[in-house]
Specification:
Elements lengths: L2 H24 L8 H35 L3 H17 L2 H10 L2 H15 L5 H11 L5 H11 L4 H24 L6 H28 L7
Helix pairs in contact: 1-7, 1-8, 1-9, 2-6, 2-7, 2-8, 3-9, 5-6, 7-8
Length: 219
């Protein structure tokens, strides 16, 4: 799987994620510190997110490796592409109901509690910890990134894919935490309208990759 797709998904997806993660980034401890400490702290927070993404990428890389050994890697690429396109077509209310049934909302509430406890503390390690926990919050574009890491078929490939995904989110998330005025509501709305198109394009790419890159997919 080409790394450029990870960077693109992370970069464009980060504008969508600003809606969820933006309040956390704006409320991070250390707002009254020097400019250097402020930038360092925000960078460490985003570093923490990338650590989580790398860990998740390694896990999905293990799964992808097992699938590759079984000879179904190309078929997996097709299935994931169809799933991504389907997730755009199907109404989000369906997924909200599904998350409630499998207990995902309870996990989300637990994460918010843990993150809230960290805001009572100070120090650079706290900012890294908040970033690590933030990386576990449910996010559609993280799931798309993990789909890409799954198709790499290797542990190192899955980890590297998600590292670049995380690096792709750095510009927007750093800008949001340091200069929130850059992202007006109208700008975010325009970007959000384009995001489903990006997801569909990536889904089509996965399908194409499964069928036509290196031969026919194996199911």
């Amino acid at each position: 799987m080409e790394i450029w797709t990870a960077l693109a998904i992370g970069f464009f997806g980060s504008f969508h994620c600003i809606g969820m993660c933006g309040p956390i980034a704006l409320a991070l401890p250390g707002s009254g510190e020097s400019t250097f400490k402020l930038i360092t702290g925000r960078a460490l927070y985003n570093f923490g997110r990338v650590v989580t993404y790398a860990f998740l990428g390694a896990i999905f890389g293990v799964i992808g490796h097992s699938i590759a050994l079984a000879g179904f890697q190309k078929g997996l690429s097709v299935v994931l592409g169809i799933a991504i396109i389907g997730s755009v077509v199907i109404k989000s209310s369906y997924f909200n109901t599904l998350k409630s049934k499998i207990g995902a909302n309870s996990f989300y509430d637990y994460l918010k509690k843990l993150i809230g406890n960290q805001f009572k503390k100070r120090g650079l390690i706290t900012l890294v910890t908040i970033g690590i926990l933030n990386g576990l919050l449910p996010c559609g574009f993280v799931y798309i990134g993990l789909a890409g890491s799954l198709t790499t078929g290797t542990i190192s490939g899955g980890m590297l894919y998600m590292i670049f995904f995380g690096l792709g989110t750095f510009p927007a998330m750093m800008a949001m935490s340091l200069a929130p005025g850059l992202f007006s509501i109208s700008l975010r709305r325009r970007i959000n309208k384009a995001i489903p198109v990006l997801a569909v394009i990536f889904g089509i790419y996965l399908i194409y990759r499964g069928f036509f890159m290196g031969g026919m997919a194996h199911f």
